[in-house]
């Protein structure tokens, strides 16, 4: 009998506690923070592609062009950490019309340009040294972590301001936050797929040219917050 009484008492306390939790007045709101930034650097992915009939010769020619490209990069005083070989390949390709096997050698190099004033000079130099494919250009900011933090703070401020707007007509106040959910999607810079002129066309333009319109990148943070109402 005593066990039954104790069991019922525990159940009653548990139910009462659960009811008390549910009765805590709350408000759930979301907030968004946006920070617009002018990029100050770019990541460029370029490829040296060579085709031919003999695998050994194709690879040798591709290696020579790659060496010339790397010498140019070093000559422009880019830090060693700012460029790396991303991919190397040598593939046979069978030509069904000519009924013979051709070979395609490719080396892809990723370069970080921390001074956008060097962009045009670098691109023209790369093409002159053997780069025949510019895969993409991604504009970024060197202070991304700081701007992401700023966006998160703005999102929290908007969430609190929104909660205060809702409860202001009720004579209540926004209390402590019970839960905070970060709904921010990972920031991925959008690549700019580049097209470039032949060197003959480039050399015919003697005047300096501006070929970039970097614009702005927008960093967005999203949060959901549950506030206690007082």
TrEMBL record:
Pfam families: SIMPL. GO terms for biological process: DNA damage response. PANTHER family: PERIPLASMIC IMMUNOGENIC PROTEIN (PTHR34387:SF1), SLR1258 PROTEIN (PTHR34387). It comes from Flavobacterium glycines. Coiled coil: none annotated. This is SIMPL domain-containing protein.
């Amino acid at each position: 009998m005593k066990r039954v009484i104790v069991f019922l008492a525990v159940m009653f306390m548990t139910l009462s506690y659960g009811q008390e939790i549910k009765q805590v007045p709350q408000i759930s709101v979301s907030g968004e923070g946006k920070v617009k930034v002018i990029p100050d650097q770019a990541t460029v992915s370029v490829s040296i592609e060579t085709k031919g009939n003999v695998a050994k010769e194709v690879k040798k020619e591709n290696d020579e062009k790659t060496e010339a490209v790397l010498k140019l990069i070093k000559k422009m005083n880019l830090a060693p950490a700012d460029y790396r070989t991303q991919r190397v390949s040598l593939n046979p390709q069978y030509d069904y019309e000519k009924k013979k096997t051709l070979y395609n050698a490719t080396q892809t190099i990723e370069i970080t340009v921390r001074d956008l004033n060097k962009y045009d000079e670098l691109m023209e130099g790369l093409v002159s040294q053997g780069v025949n494919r510019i895969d993409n250009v991604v504009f970024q900011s060197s202070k991304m972590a700081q701007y992401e933090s700023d966006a998160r703070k703005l999102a929290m401020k908007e969430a609190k301001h929104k909660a205060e707007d809702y409860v202001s007509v009720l004579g209540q106040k926004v209390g402590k936050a019970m839960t905070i959910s970060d709904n921010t999607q990972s920031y991925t810079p959008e690549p700019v797929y580049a097209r470039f002129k032949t060197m003959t066309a480039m050399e015919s333009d003697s005047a300096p040219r501006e070929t970039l319109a970097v614009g702005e990148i927008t960093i967005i943070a999203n949060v959901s917050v549950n506030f206690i109402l007082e």
